[in-house]
């Protein structure tokens, strides 16, 4: 894609995304006043998610419908995304780096056992948004993951999970970066 074909809005989103990717960069002075109102935009690249791509898009859309503080937006071609989503043959898992950043694996092992692909996608994205597993748990909980069983197809976070994400992204990201090395969250 030629840069000149980008709209102003996309260019702005790209700049925001890059400043977030660069890390715990302090928000630009001009944006500070709006920091509490505007959703934090994080881009995701689902180009490596193979047959799960539409499920990943749906999982991201569910988060966008569910919370105000953060928005997950598909990365444009060639754009370095905050979140990479990959398909593989293992168990679904997430490797959060900093809040809103990391890698998600949509593992075929769980899909082959009958677990719902949209619930898996929303669950793993939930880890990137700072949520831990809540196991065992009921189907009404997104972060109960596989413990809710294969019959559970609920891809929506419950009220507590939504509130936790709102809280995670409601303050300055710089204060929320986890210490130490990133750890893989399996399931
Ligand atoms: Zn999990």
From TrEMBL:
The keyword Repressor appears for this protein: no
Signal peptide: 1-27
A GO molecular-function descriptor: zinc ion binding
Keyword Zinc: yes
Catalytic center residues: 124
Keywords associated with the record: Calcium, Disulfide bond, Hydrolase, Metal-binding, Metalloprotease, Protease, Secreted, Signal, Zinc
Alphabetical GO biological process terms: proteolysis
Catalysed reaction equations from the record: Hydrolyzes proteins with a preference for Tyr or Phe in the P1' position. Has no action on amino-acid p-nitroanilides
GO CC annotations, alphabetized: extracellular region
Database matches in InterPro entries: MetalloPept_cat_dom_sf, Peptidase_M7
Localization per Swiss-Prot or TrEMBL: Secreted
Disulfide cross-links: 139-152
EC annotation from Swiss-Prot or TrEMBL: 3.4.24.77
Binding positions (Zn(2+)): 123, 127, 133
Cofactor note: Binds 1 Ca(2+) ion per subunit. Binds 1 zinc ion per subunit.
Binding site for Ca(2+): 116
Family as reported in the entry's similarity comment: Belongs to the peptidase M7 family.
Name of the protein in its database record: Extracellular small neutral protease
Lineage: Bacteria, Bacillati, Actinomycetota, Actinomycetes, Kitasatosporales
